[in-house]
Amino acid sequence: VDIGKPIANTQVYLLDRHDKVLPPGFVGELCIGGAGLARGYRGQPELTAERFAEVEVPGLGPRRLYRTGDLARWRTDGVLECLGRMDFQTKLRGVRMELGEIETALASHPAVGAAVVAKRDDLPGGEALVAYLVAAEGAPGDLAGELRAHLGERLPEAMRPAFYEFLEALPLTPNGKVDRRRLPAPAVERAGTDFVAPQTASEAVLAEIFDAAFAPRAVGIRDNFFELGGDSLLAVKIVTRVSAAFNREVPLDAFLRFPTIEGLARYLHAPLAAAEEDGEMPVGATPDSDYLSLQLVEDDGGAPPEVDAVALAYIPDAFAAVSGLSREALARDWFGGKPRLTNTYDTPWGTVGVVMLPMFEVDLYKDAAGIKPAVLDALRLAGRLGAKNVSLTGAIPAVTDGGVDIVTWMNGEGVNLPIITTGDATRTATVVKSVEGVLEKAGRQLGATRVAFVGLGSIGKGTLDLMLETLPHPAALTLCDFYKAEERLEGIQDQLLASGYAGEIALAPANGALPDAVYEADLIVAATSVPGVIDIDKLRPGTLLVDYSFPPAFRTVDAARRFAASADILFTTGGQLRLGAEVEETVYLPAAAAGLLEEVGADQLAALAGRDGHEMTGCVLASILTGLAPDVRVTLGALSGDDALAHYRFLDELGLRPARLQMEGYFLSDEAVRRFRDRPSSEPSGAAR
């Protein structure tokens, strides 16, 4: 509802949950100040303290404001738009939404006399939206179908009710308001189909799984999963059970194409090779995504919310795959050719924003001229956001000479920019933590392990040095690098021996392919820029793999398939840390993504985040942790062993631990990891050969 502009001598501000003033396009609580503001509620000091707040307004200082409890946003034309009460704001599958907005969309249909929307958790599959409706006189018989189509043109998929319950009248309280507590649980519709019992053994197995998901209601073989109120989260649970029941990995995409028991049974009876031709990723453990919120933001040039630190990133390749856009179109339509704030994380130490460059990883290597202006634009944006530090993520340090090039570019700027850090010390400490984590999961001791390092640049060599400084020495080391000749590897060998390492050291220079000596290791730590160099099929049973390469040193789908089939290897990224508390994340999508959000769904987009709510990458955390202690310093250029050790010890002081075993959004299940530990081949082969 448009409510216009403030009257004279009245100021209106929109605040986020941290009482920070929001710019145009962002949704926040409507707060009012100015000459006509009351002192408070007479004789009600507690209510006064709750509804009146002292807020720091940028450029104006502290201001006393009244909290209205309404949600609103400034439109680009300067008009204030009210979205309803905060009391009726809810969060479902990671998406924050205003129930009043859905009710308004329903009420706009001429056949609807009254509409109320509620979120319930006593439904098949868990939480879902229910639309309670009073039909107008002369309403069609299939009004639910019409309303689904009606909302399909007006609201994203995540905001459309799963159930439609028609009532003679809405239950009311004595004062005439809707009594939401008396709204009944909805009945499940069958979209006009009659109940059809299972006809084959496969259908009977599937029916048992569906019935358990939608209990206590029985599901017929032609009942559509989505018409029954199912959503993508429930689909994942069903697919996991179907995969286990039929001893094969059923892609989620296949279930979405065949959302009935009858159709899914036919798919399962198709030739296995044909079903697997599309190269689907096996189903792994599913992380909780309740920590994640998605928000569409109008591209109006307003400054986004304030942050304490920024991590500088680039567009993930997965964005192009999910959006269906070319890389050029994505950078143009979603980013407008400029860096933008894409994520914020609420950590225990402050808010971290992710500012993404309008380019992909490959562009960093092939478009050297385009990096400088994009990075400087990103640093200016970070400064406007209030960031004190900016960490460089992914391959950005590698293509900027460890950040030294960026410092040179910054020296020519006439404005103060945030302090930058490669975060290499935190990254290296994170990789060592990941080594500790995979050894713990495998039940291994590093002292009885042969370790191969693939890539001995800043991170690889730093990880090797820090590992030897903080952990028991492995029985043997294999050193491999695609860019270092054998004589340079010999120099590293001499340094290790001089520092007190007494184990066996084998040199394995790579001449276009990974040497066989690497595959003899019990643990491989990769930190290389050469993609796909590790052949998963050549790994010996029992091998552990920690990868911190950009792009990855192996194909995640190959590793996931082998792990799902035989559970004889363990693998993980080296970049994640586990925190004691859940970290809320907000993803800011441009207005151009509205169509994709509607088509693909919030759950699929949320899956791109690919993280556990208690975990974050070390390179992002580096932005907020740097400077919190005197010896947790900025890292630029060559990595100092003292800096890496200081960051490692600081992570210990903060109680940060190794993350779950995972790679590119694929999480290794605890059950399969236990099978790995129970295999005789999971025992290390030892250093003796």
> Into which percentage range does the β-strand content fall?
15-25%
The description of the largest β-sheet is: 7 strands, mixed
* First-last Cα distance: 76 Å
Give the number of helices.
23
Shape: globular
Assembly annotation: single chain
Q: What are the low-pLDDT stretches, counting only 5+ consecutive residues below 50?
A: 271-278, 685-689
Work out the radius of gyration: 28 Å
Helix content: 25-40%
Sheet with the most strands: spatial strand order: 12-25-14-15-13-16-17
On the 0-100 scale, what is the average pLDDT?
84
Give the beta-strand count. 29
Structural class given helices, strands, pairing?
Answer: alpha/beta
What is the secondary structure topology, with strand pairs?
Elements: E1 2-4, E2 10-15, E3 28-34, H1 45-51, E4 52-57, E5 61-74, E6 80-85, E7 89-92, E8 95-98, H2 99-107, E9 112-120, E10 128-135, H3 143-152, E11 163-166, H4 201-213, H5 232-246, H6 252-257, H7 261-268, H8 272-276, E12 292-297, E13 309-315, H9 317-323, H10 327-333, E14 340-347, E15 350-360, H11 361-366, H12 368-385, E16 389-392, H13 396-399, H14 404-411, E17 419-421, H15 424-442, E18 450-454, H16 458-470, E19 476-480, H17 486-498, E20 504-507, E21 523-526, E22 544-547, H18 556-566, E23 570-573, E24 576-578, E25 584-590, H19 594-600, H20 602-607, E26 615-617, H21 618-625, H22 641-653, E27 657-658, E28 662-663, E29 666-667, H23 670-678
Parallel strand pairs: 10-11, 12-25, 13-15, 13-16, 16-17, 18-19, 18-21, 19-20, 21-22, 22-23
Antiparallel strand pairs: 1-6, 2-3, 3-5, 4-5, 5-6, 7-8, 9-10, 14-15, 14-25, 24-26, 24-27, 28-29
